[in-house]
Amino acid sequence: MTQYLLLIYGQESTWAELTPDQISAEMGAYFAYTQDLQKAGAYVGANELHPVATAKTVSIETGKQKVVDGPFAETKETLGGYYLIETETLADALAWAARCPGAKFGRIEVRPVVMR
């Protein structure tokens, strides 16, 4: 079994444009997706992230720590959350990524986890 991180990228503004009923429906889709992962034995963990405005990026420049607000990359789509799953094959992980509700509004990056 291999672990894969499903990184959920989308535009934060999309959520602000949804009605309360639409938000409820989307959250219901995420809850159902999580239950499906759990039933299949693929679920390892997941978390939603706070808005990108709360992010900090740390680097070392000339031997000193530098902290800047926001993500490192300037993009319209931001990392909003992730699922850590475990599957037999990459094809299985890609199939789960395609079922993720976030794929309808953004992108799901699938990355294998280095296990040591």
TrEMBL record:
Protein name, per record: YCII-related domain-containing protein
Pfam family, one: YCII
Residue stretches making up the YCII-related domain: 3-114
Family: Belongs to the YciI family.
Organism of origin: Candidatus Viadribacter manganicus
Lineage: Bacteria, Pseudomonadati, Pseudomonadota, Alphaproteobacteria, Hyphomonadales
Recorded superkingdom: Bacteria
